[in-house]
Design a protein that fits this description.
The protein has 143 residues and is an alpha+beta fold. The chain folds into two domains: 2-46, no CATH class; 59-142, Signal recognition particle alu RNA binding heterodimer, srp9/1. It is 31% helix and 15% strand. A hairpin with a 4-residue loop joins strand 2 (103-108) and strand 3 (113-117). The longest helix has 20 residues, at 2-21. The two termini are 15 Å apart.
């Protein structure tokens, strides 16, 4: 599991470096009026296209984001670690998010979200590993 975490970190860092290496400053012409900002569409057209440039999306913008939205506290469903662990082992989980605080957010396949506290850091990933092949497609995220 440690290898997977290191690989994930490596991929994120690599994609970030690639994303920023493709950026170029906007061309400045002597006739440009310094009081008006260039149009966004013109800037977009001047950037080189690169198949390696990832689309950066905030997890909060995703429809089934494992991160709680600011107004989600009212509809929050807290469960015990035992219940969360059983949901994982029953292959009912689509996404898992783990915070450094040991808080775990599970997004179930039916779209509902459960919150729990794992007994020790990375325990949720050990349970996913224990689950086996039926949990291979679970989206995993950690901070």
């Amino acid at each position: 599991m440690k290898i997977q975490q290191h690989l994930t970190t490596f991929i994120v860092v690599t994609l970030t470096v690639l994303a920023f290496s493709g950026c170029t400053p906007a061309a400045v012409t002597p006739d440009a009026d310094a009081t008006t900002a260039p149009e966004t569409e013109t800037q977009q057209e001047s950037l080189p296209e690169s198949p390696l440039m990832p689309t950066v999306v905030s997890p909060l913008d995703l429809p089934n984001s494992p991160l709680p939205s600011p107004d989600a506290e009212e509809s929050r469903t807290d469960v015990s670690w035992a219940v969360a662990k059983q949901k994982i082992l029953d292959a009912e989980v689509a996404e898992v998010f783990q915070a450094h605080s040991r808080e775990v957010v599970l997004v179930l396949k039916d779209g509902s979200t459960l919150h729990t506290i794992e007994p020790k850091l990375d325990e949720v990933f050990r349970v996913l590993e224990q689950c086996g092949e039926q949990c291979d497609d679970v989206l995993r995220a950690t901070e």
